[in-house]
Amino acid sequence: MAQEETLVTRIERATIEAMKARDAARTSALRMAKAALQNRAIEKRAPLDDGDAVQVLGTLAKQRREAIEQFRAGGRADLAEKEEAELLVLQEFLPEALSEEQVRQAVHETVAAVGAAGSKDMGKVMSALMPRVKGRADGKLVNALVREALGGGA
């Protein structure tokens, strides 16, 4: 195999394997991911590269995390567990998430690199930082850490 396998191809292969293994929960989660990837490719009118695929999967993972919170708050542990199982499947295909400390380090490096002096430079820092952590860190966490670093409070 001369060419490295794309993320979309890996998900398609994993879907087939899950179907053969009769793993209904995994098959369902992978089909959902595959459908989202196909929809994004249609919107883009071009095949997805790995960066686009990671972005789509990151969005799906974020939706699962939010749903888990909502189901737990509503006392629906059964539905929260289903979402957690889907999240675990999605995380297999996402790059390893950065720890809060790694994000904090990236924030400080970026603040220093762009010469940010205060909260007015928030946009400058975020636009320089987000490509570095895209798909590997939660946007809310990044935003909070940038505000903290710029002295805008948490």
Helix and strand composition category: mainly alpha
The CATH superfamily of the largest domain is identified as Uncharacterised protein YqeY/AIM41, N-terminal domain
> How many structural domains?
2
- Biggest sheet, open or closed, and with what strands and sense? none
Question: Summary?
Answer:
With 154 residues, this protein is an all-alpha fold.
Secondary-structure blueprint of this entry?
Elements: H1 7-20, H2 24-44, H3 50-73, H4 77-91, H5 100-114, H6 122-133, H7 139-149
Helix pairs in contact: 1-2, 2-3, 2-4, 3-4, 5-6, 5-7, 6-7
Describe the structure in your own words:
With 154 residues, this protein is mainly α. It folds into two domains: 7-91, Hypothetical Protein Yqey, Chain: A, domain1, CATH 1.10.1510.10; 100-149, Orthogonal Bundle (Arc Repressor Mutant, subunit A). Helix content is 73%, strand content 0%. It is built from seven helices and no strands. The protein has helices at 7-20, 24-44, 50-73, 77-91, 100-114, 122-133, 139-149. Helix 1 runs antiparallel to helix 2, helix 3 (50-73) packs antiparallel against helix 4 and helix 6 (122-133) crosses helix 7. The longest helix has 24 residues, at 50-73. 19% of the residues are buried. The model has no long low-confidence stretch (mean pLDDT 89).
